[in-house]
């Protein structure tokens, strides 16, 4: 079976500035990996490249054996830039519009969507948040609603860019425990960037560090 994520000699840059130079990497099913690195090292750029949103200067990325664009239906993504699509929109309408990514922004309200949405809201403790306008939620609450959306299509690969920012320590622990359990139970793999990885280490299998254009994968227990 193809690994969930495979990078072969991947080079990423912004203009002439190379951020990652000919990196190889493999992540397997059911693993939770923390992406670490100082400001400006290229974490967001790497995660965007995994979603097919940033071009490669060289090399190849495969997600479950497919190119990032072809693997869209297999991936869930929570970007770092979380500007509100429409401040008065409720979380429920926002999430309904993103279900399956095939609705051209039009919400669907069938029973399948309702059940899938309810399950994801329960995972993130967002049931009581989704019927309020997004603009009236706190930063940490909004993060949980957006995380529900990333989980909505039961992805095999979940890419999260600083999902814990703005959450209090209690919610950070609950979300990390939930993600760890989903990895174990469903085989989903998670790659998530976060600053201050110490608090998250006990939930993770690996730490992927970006430093001086290199990627290094290590066991989280070391
Ligand atoms: N659109 C852009 N055009 C040019 N340079 C960019 C662009 N976006 C980011 N950069 C630069 O690329 C580098 C890496 O940015 P990136 O956002 O990937 O870093 P990061 O590791 O996620 O940082 P942080 O921890 O601060 O979020 C930074 O030096 C940044 O200034």
Automatic annotation (TrEMBL):
Single annotated GO MF: ATP binding
Highest taxon listed in the record's lineage: Bacteria
Signal sequence segment: none
InterPro entries assigned: AAA+_ATPase, ABC_transporter-like_ATP-bd, ABC_transporter-like_CS, Metal_Ion_Import_ABC, P-loop_NTPase
Keyword ATP-binding included in the entry's annotation: yes
Presence of the UniProt keyword Transcription regulation in the record: no
Keywords from the UniProt entry: ATP-binding, Ion transport, Nucleotide-binding, Transport, Zinc, Zinc transport
Domain ABC transporter, first and last residues per copy: 5-222
PANTHER family from the UniProt entry: METAL TRANSPORT SYSTEM ATP-BINDING PROTEIN TM_0124-RELATED
Family: Belongs to the ABC transporter superfamily.
Protein name: Mn2+/Zn2+ transporter ATP-binding protein
Organism: Asaia krungthepensis NRIC 0535
């Amino acid at each position: 079976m193809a690994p969930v994520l495979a990078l072969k000699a991947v080079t990423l840059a912004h203009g002439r500035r190379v951020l990652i130079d000919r990196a190889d990497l493999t992540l397997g099913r059911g693993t939770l990996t923390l992406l670490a690195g100082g400001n400006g090292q290229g974490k967001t750029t790497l995660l965007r490249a995994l979603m097919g949103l940033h071009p490669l200067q060289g090399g190849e990325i495969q997600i479950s054996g497919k190119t990032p664009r072809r693997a869209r239906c297999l991936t869930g993504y929570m970007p770092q830039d979380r500007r509100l699509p429409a401040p008065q929109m409720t979380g429920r309408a926002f999430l309904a519009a993103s279900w399956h990514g095939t609705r051209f922004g039009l919400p669907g309200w069938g029973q399948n969507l309702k059940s899938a949405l309810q399950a994801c809201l329960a995972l993130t403790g967002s049931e009581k948040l989704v019927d309020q306008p997004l603009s009236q939620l706190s930063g940490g609450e909004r993060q949980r609603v957006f995380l529900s959306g990333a989980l909505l299509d039961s992805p095999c690969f979940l890419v999260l860019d600083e999902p814990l920012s703005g959450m209090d320590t209690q919610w950070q622990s609950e979300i990390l425990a939930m993600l760890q359990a989903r990895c174990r139970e469903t085989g989903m793999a998670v790659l998530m960037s976060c600053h201050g990885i110490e608090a998250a280490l006990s939930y993770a299998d690996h730490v992927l560090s970006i430093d001086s254009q290199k990627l290094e994968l290590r066991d989280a227990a070391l």
